[in-house]
From TrEMBL:
Database matches in CDD domains: ATP-synt_V_A-type_beta_C (cd18112), ATP-synt_V_A-type_beta_N (cd18118), V_A-ATPase_B (cd01135)
Keyword Secreted in annotation: no
Any one GO BP annotation for this protein: proton motive force-driven plasma membrane ATP synthesis
Keywords of this entry: ATP synthesis, Hydrogen ion transport, Ion transport, Transport
Purpose: Produces ATP from ADP in the presence of a proton gradient across the membrane. The V-type beta chain is a regulatory subunit.
Annotated ranges, domain ATPase F1/V1/A1 complex alpha/beta subunit N-terminal: 10-73
Residues annotated as domain ATPase F1/V1/A1 complex alpha/beta subunit nucleotide-binding: 130-349
Name this protein carries in UniProt: V-type ATP synthase beta chain
Record-stated family: Belongs to the ATPase alpha/beta chains family.
Gene (name only): atpB
MF annotations from Gene Ontology: ATP binding; proton-transporting ATP synthase activity, rotational mechanism; proton-transporting ATPase activity, rotational mechanism
Highest taxon, organism lineage: Bacteria
Length: 456
């Protein structure tokens, strides 16, 4: 028998508190009726006979009296079928694109679990993004989680849109490839930008979008990535598809978590974020991967903006512990009018070594990527020396390194938003740029590779 509660104890921000509650469950969905309004929420805390409910819509207009609260006995579930492809949903999985509801017998709880480590399959094949700096130096491997660390004002939205419209896997499996895009706390113009780019580039049919806008309730922001990952799990492990999940902006998600934690009067941790921020982020990131016995995969690119460009801030810091590398955008490179402004030195992909080389990309890829990192690192040393003694006083080889550095940034790193380079084109361009340096400086490349590919 479902009971209705006709009185609240208190309303505080997005939370309502009820007392005298029986048999409530954590994460249970609650229906709140006040006059003609019907709102929904979920149970976030239970203590003795009290239940704290997080309201998805805002709590404006609610009263502690003249209200009806009904516990549904079920967690938040979304309807799933292959018909979700090409559709746009709000943060709690409701269609907002005038395409009608999704009618399906399959419903899934959005509070999914991380993949069991015993059931995981080691990621191997790469995903081509068409962006040279990523494909060549921080290769994205299928089943990997590879975040983008950005800053306010940097073009991470452009990068996310470019990855979505260009990403592909091997041609034999590309028909089974799709993208789940989750936006949290984005402005209306950013949401319209993503929709327009995906429509114009013709990829919207293979994209599932979950949009939580900046003026949507903060509570919805907590649900958005969970709805997106639930959809991704269904497509990957029940429809045997390869899914790339792009989530932006994880900083908005963490800010929402901090706001709700504060409303619940929890003891704050670093910089006011809740002490469970690490485990909360892990519960999202660890839903990516490949499983034994399943042919599908989930690959994640979470995008976050570092407050004050501080890579030691709790959000990038904890994200870096959980994920397998990072792509770091740099403000100085951006100010030199280079797009995408990826700083390759602090960027890395920890699974890259297992998905490149012969049989995956090309035989020379591992050697030449190592050499590129080494030479660009030397460029930074030469730039520092030139600032002390002046560029005219540098040795001839140091001047070659400066020339290489300029060519690397403006020819290799820099590419247009609509420029889609395949891996062969990227590797050939890398050899052109590296061949500025004498062969004697390329000490990380096998002699047979130098003989075959060096352009000097």
């Amino acid at each position: 028998m479902i009971k209705e509660y006709l009185e609240l104890q208190k309303i505080e921000g997005p939370l309502i508190v009820l007392s005298g509650v029986e048999n409530a469950s954590y994460d249970e969905i609650v229906e709140i009726k006040c006059g003609e309004q019907i709102k929904h929420g979920k149970v976030v805390q239970i203590y003795e006979d009290k239940a704290v409910v997080q309201v998805f819509e805002n709590t404006a207009g609610l009263s502690v009296k003249d209200i009806s609260v009904k516990f549904t006995g079920k967690p938040l579930e979304i309807s799933l079928s292959k018909e979700i492809m090409g559709r746009v949903f709000n943060g709690i999985g409701e269609p907002i694109d005038d395409g009608g509801d999704i009618y399906s017998k399959i419903k899934r709880d959005v509070n999914g679990r991380p993949i069991n480590p015993v059931a995981r399959k080691y990621p191997r094949d790469y995903i081509q993004t068409g962006i040279s700096a990523i494909d060549f130096l921080t290769t994205l491997i299928r089943g990997q989680k590879l975040p983008v660390f950005s800053g306010n004002g940097l073009p991470h939205n452009n990068l996310a849109a470019q990855i979505v419209k260009q990403a592909k896997i091997s041609s034999s499996q590309n028909s089974d490839f799709a993208i789940v895009f989750a936006a949290m706390g984005v402005k209306h113009d950013d949401a319209h930008y993503f929709l327009r780019i995906f429509e114009e580039s013709g990829v919207l049919d293979r994209v599932v979008m979950f949009l939580n806008l900046a003026d949507d309730p903060v509570v919805e922001r907590i649900i958005t990535p969970r709805c997106a990952l639930t959809a991704a799990e269904y497509l990957a492990f029940e429809e045997n598809m390869h899914i790339l999940v792009v989530m932006t902006d994880m900083t908005s998600y963490c800010e929402a978590l901090r706001e709700i934690s504060s409303a619940r009067e929890e003891v704050p941790g670093r910089k006011g974020y809740p002490g469970y921020l690490y485990s909360d982020l892990a519960s999202l990131y660890e839903r990516a991967g490949m499983m034994e016995g399943a042919s599908g995969s989930i690959t994640q690119i979470p995008i976050l903006t570092m407050p004050n460009d501080d890579i030691t801030h709790p959000i990038p810091d904890l994200t870096g512990y959980i994920t397998e590398g990072q792509i770091v955008l740099n403000r100085d490179i951006y100010q030199r009018n280079i797009y995408p402004p990826i700083n390759i030195l602090p960027s890395l992909s920890r699974l890259m070594k297992d998905g490149i080389g012969e049989g995956y990309t090309r035989e020379d890829h591992p050697d030449i990527a190592n050499q590129m990192f080494s030479c660009y690192s030397k460029v930074q040393e030469v730039i520092a020396l030139a600032q002390v003694i002046g560029e005219d006083e540098l040795s001839d080889i140091d001047k070659k390194y400066l020339e290489f550095g300029r060519e690397f940034e403006y020819r290799f790193l820099n590419q247009g938003f609509d420029e889609n380079r395949d891996i062969e084109e990227t590797l050939n361009l890398a050899w052109e740029v590296l061949s500025i340096l004498p062969q004697g400086e390329l000490d990380r490349i096998a002699p047979e590779m130098l003989k075959k590919y060096y352009r000097g």
